[in-house]
Amino acid sequence: MRVKDIEALLYQRFPAHQAEGWDHIGLSVGDPGAKVTGIACALDPLPQTIKDAKDQGCNVLVTHHPAYLDAPRLITPEAATSSLAAQSIWCAIEHQVSLIAMHTNLDRSSAALTLPSQLTGFPFMGRLQAPDGYGCILDATGFTLAQVAERFGHAYGAIPTIYGQADRPIAKVGFSSGSLGDIGLDAVAAGCDAVVSGEASYHRILDLTARGCEVILLGHDVSELPYAQLLALTLADLSLQVPVVTLSESARWSLLLDSDAVG
């Protein structure tokens, strides 16, 4: 099994043509003809993640986020003298770990769009952007906004941020991982009472709540951490006869909950 074979098999599950034109998917660093010793899966191809993959005997790291969108003009061992993307590239080459990303093509896949339903237990109602776009709609009939947020928080391992009336009854919930952007307007058009995402701009949130669509935010990374396990399960289903592991990752941020610390 070669690195290029892993890329080709992943494209069968997450077709390249479904990625955005600005995206950088597939193999970004590595030898396509190198023999695969093991595959690690993660959300981000950070230098430490690359080292962790190597430590577990893996010479391929498959992630959701690409190492870069535009190739760095300067590549050095330290981000301080170039960039984080450049440092990751240097680290991958140094440790002979190939980097493969399945980004917006994975976002639009049926496997990704049904994952929130599997994690939360809210029934899947369909895509938010039909027929093949981003996001999904879930049935949360009988739950309040606070209860929906609590269930998502438990499922994704985060403390959600709520914008709206906590005791408002909810029926339809839109979900879009990562950055919400204009997809929030699709949730409004679909008649969603609330939309769950990773992050959204302040003014976008104000606009959505004014339109009657409450907002729940989990954190960009938290909303997409389950994709690492999805990638690992996808590869495991292919019976590749090489080890496939999911690297341990957590939110890149934390909450300061001690009110005395902020006066």
From TrEMBL:
Gene3D superfamilies: NIF3 (NGG1p interacting factor 3)-like (3.40.1390.30). InterPro entries: DUF34/NIF3 (IPR002678), DUF34/NIF3_sf (IPR036069). Transmembrane segments: none annotated. Pfam families: DUF34_NIF3 (PF01784). A divalent metal cation 1 binds at H65, D107, H220, E224. GO terms for molecular function: metal ion binding. It comes from the Bacteria. Keywords: Metal-binding. A divalent metal cation 2 binds at H64. One of its GO terms (cellular component) is cytoplasm. Belongs to the GTP cyclohydrolase I type 2/NIF3 family. Homohexamer. This is GTP cyclohydrolase 1 type 2 homolog.
